[in-house]
Design brief:
Blueprint: H1 18-26, H2 28-36, E1 40-43, H3 45-61, E2 66-71, H4 78-86, E3 90-93, H5 96-104, E4 112-114, H6 121-129, E5 133-136, H7 139-150, E6 157-162, H8 177-190, E7 194-200, H9 208-226, E8 234-236, H10 248-257, H11 283-292, H12 302-308, E9 312-315, E10 326-337, E11 342-346, E12 367-369, E13 380-385, E14 394-402, E15 411-414, E16 437-442, E17 449-452
Parallel strand pairs: 1-16, 2-3, 2-9, 3-4, 4-5, 5-6, 6-7, 7-8, 8-9, 11-13
Antiparallel strand pairs: 1-10, 10-11, 10-15, 12-15, 13-14, 16-17
Helix pairs in contact: 3-4, 3-11, 6-7, 7-8, 9-11
Length: 457
């Protein structure tokens, strides 16, 4: 495998993706670019189905009772909510709009979990009305929820208590030990008005061992809560299942060669701020490793601990369910020569490639679809800028080695962007249209069929 370009700059090729390759080979993308007259995203929902099935297999193989919620914040497209509903999976929402969107696309209320801090009373009332599981972030929020239930005495509130991780004590989310004690007492006092179903947490980063340790601690908390007459039979570990975008050798080569000279205008990024674009155990494999891990101070694997005390494991993956589930397409509007490389301008903004707005860079190499079949082959380094007046609005600061010279009218396809990249920060800046999402319903030997996503807003 060629890990560096001829100029010595490290490349970062994405892992093979036959479904995306079939779309590229079909000739459909130039037609869609012409039809929309601007950037767009295409979605591959079959990948979502496959990732969900793999996570369920990991739970089943470990003998653990579990339930998967799709973290809707990772992508606004309706098709992924529709696929979750069709498969009997859940959706993690954090706003009234997300909750209504999930209900409107077929997800049952009892298959929703409501997360986020300091929820509005109207949102809490909507959640209670539909039997949504509510992850409570503070004693004050629990009091607000109990007040809502007081007006609906026949409908109990389903509750998880969110725990402040000891390893991340400065997080603004979750309750410390004293707050948890207060919340547990109030749940017990509320009687039938509250169904306290367990505890939840979310950890930043992707390390397995801290998640196993904290999950075991939450299992212990469930046992203590049961002594107060509470149900406490489930825990949520949130998300944090990593995705692998590239192979190990390419990632090591990139990190070894990371240098500001490889970026337009000498832009400087800290390597530690990049997403870990390769991991040995992505997605469902990370879940299996978590279940097999032995929490600190325990002589059993986490899976055995959960089974032993009758705990259902809830998880809320976003990016991991969207691995290889979509890509983003831009048209080249112009090309400038610079000293030893070119500067491409495309018909969109970095608001549609969100990593650049977090003091970081989306590193997987974009694919250049050359209009000219006679374009010379070689190595043509270029960075990619946006169609705005902002100097800092760059889709790719890095000088990518393209296999043919970029020209006006060519397409740039950024791979594997469905997870958080394509719409987390979207905005009609300069009155540019927000890129539409195209659902690819079939790929393979036949020409792909497509339709616009049915997102309500």
């Amino acid at each position: 495998m060629e890990l560096t370009t001829a100029t010595g700059r490290p490349a970062l090729p994405v892992l093979p993706d036959p479904a995306a390759d079939a779309v590229l080979a079909s000739g459909l993308l130039p037609e869609l670019a012409y039809a929309f007259g601007g950037p767009f995203h295409f979605l591959l929902p079959d990948a979502f189905d496959a990732n969900l099935a793999a996570m369920r297999r990991a739970l089943a193989e470990a003998g653990v009772d579990g339930f998967v919620y799709f973290a809707k914040k990772a992508n606004k497209a309706a098709v992924f909510v529709e696929r979750a509903a069709a498969a009997g999976a859940g959706v993690d929402v954090a706003s009234a709009a997300e909750l209504r969107e999930a209900l409107g696309h077929g997800v049952r209320g009892e298959h929703l979990v409501l997360t986020g801090p300091a929820k509005d009373p109207a949102l809490l009332e909507l959640a209670v009305r539909h039997g949504v599981l509510v992850a409570v972030d503070s004693p004050g929020e629990l009091d607000a929820l109990i007040s809502v239930v007081a007006h609906r005495p026949a409908v109990p509130a389903r509750v998880l208590l969110r725990v402040l991780p000891g390893a991340q004590p400065h997080s603004r989310f979750g309750m410390n030990d004293a707050e948890l004690a207060t919340a547990l007492a109030r749940c017990a006092e509320a009687g039938d008005a509250v169904r306290m179903e367990g505890f939840s947490f979310h950890l930043s980063g992707y390390a397995i061992q801290p998640r196993a340790d904290l999950a075991a601690h939450l299992a212990d908390l469930c046992l203590k809560a049961r002594t107060k007459g509470l149900v406490a039979d489930r825990i949520s570990i949130g998300g944090g299942l990593p995705v692998s975008y590239t192979d190990a050798d390419s990632w090591r080569s990139y990190l070894a060669g990371h240098d500001s000279a490889n970026f337009h205008a000498g832009k400087s990024f800290q390597a530690a701020d990049f997403y870990p674009y390769h991991c040995d155990q992505p997605g469902a494999q990370a879940l299996a490793a978590l279940l097999a891990a032995r929490p600190e101070g325990r002589d059993q694997a986490l899976a055995d601990i959960l089974k032993g005390v009758g705990i259902t494991l809830l998880l809320e993956p976003g990016r991991a369910l969207l691995d290889r589930a979509g890509a983003s397409v831009f048209t080249v509007q112009g090309v400038k020569d610079r000293d030893g490389y070119q500067l491409i301008t495309v018909d969109g903004t970095s608001l549609s490639l969100s990593e650049q707005w977090f003091n970081s860079e989306y590193l997987p190499d974009p694919h250049l679809v050359c209009r000219d079949p006679e374009a010379p082959e070689g190595l043509y380094p270029a960075s990619v800028g946006a169609a705005t007046c902002l100097e800092s609005d760059m889709l790719t600061w890095r000088k990518i080695g393209f296999p043919c010279p970029p020209r006006t009218g060519d397409l740039l396809v950024y791979p594997n962007t469905a997870g958080y990249q394509m719409d987390s920060n979207e905005s009609p800046f300069h009155d540019l249209a927000i890129p539409p999402k195209v659902v690819i319903d079939r790929t393979g030997d036949d020409r792909p069929r497509w339709r616009l996503d049915r997102h309500f807003s």
